[in-house]
Amino acid sequence: MGNIVSIHSFRGGTGKSNLTANLAAQVAMAGKRVGIIDTDIQSPGIHVLFGLNEAKMGHTLNEYLRSECDILDVAYPVGEHGSELPGLKQLAGKQLWLVPSSIKSSEISRVLRDGYDVARLNEGMQRLFKEMKLDYLFIDTHPGLNEETLLSIAVSDILMIILRPDQQDFQGTSVTVDIARGLDVPNLFLIINKVLTRYNFAQIREQVEKTYQAEVAGVLPLTEDVADMASADIFSLRYPDHPWSRSLREIAKTIMETA
């Protein structure tokens, strides 16, 4: 049995979807069977990093949650679809699937108005894992704490909490860490993202580990290069020698080395 990896942040804007896409891609490049599910249904976005738009998606997680299709019908085989983008092109033939959420305004409004059955989401994740024989299932969660994110945390084998060196992030992360420990998450790691390059990374790592009594899996620099790509490709594959990409691969290594 493989691992469910939830990528979470207390606030938006931490780079969660970008990190999820890059980590999943790196693990797939290592020869693993990898799934990604976008449970940020209110504000989906990870599909953009894999070159998808509404026309290419086919079925979406929204349809599955309304019992209009099977969860396996939603899984989009990224590795089977070619791309001319330098990063995505490297995923050809890799065993990587994405379960996207709809980006239609009507679908998002419907979720906000009616909600959805969280138990069915859990059933879908478990079936996806079992039927597709995944080594890793990455969950791109909705920021903050609500019913679906608590479910994602509770079923996780590995929880990666992303924070920036910001006081609001520090306080929110403290709440999330406490809840994760209360839910007995087996493996909890922190990722510090968007750190100014003039800062002392080792000092920040030490401070955060001391504050939360949790291991920091990686410290990633704030860089215009990542921002300039504007989610149009998988940065760590396109620019493997970039400092951001090297730090990202260390986090992916931690995930694959965690039992």
Automatic annotation (TrEMBL):
Listed Pfam families: CbiA
Record-annotated CobQ/CobB/MinD/ParA nucleotide binding domain positions: 6-231
GO terms for cellular component: cytoplasmic side of plasma membrane; cytosol
Molecular function GO labels: ATP binding; ATP hydrolysis activity
Entries under InterPro entries matching the protein: CobQ/CobB/MinD/ParA_Nub-bd_dom, P-loop_NTPase, ParA/MinD_ATPase
Source species, domain of life: Bacteria
GO term, biological process aspect, one: negative regulation of cell division
PANTHER family: ATPASE INVOLVED IN CHROMOSOME PARTITIONING, PARA_MIND FAMILY (PTHR43384:SF10), SEPTUM SITE-DETERMINING PROTEIN MIND HOMOLOG, CHLOROPLASTIC-RELATED (PTHR43384)
Protein name: ATPases
Protein species of origin: Longilinea arvoryzae
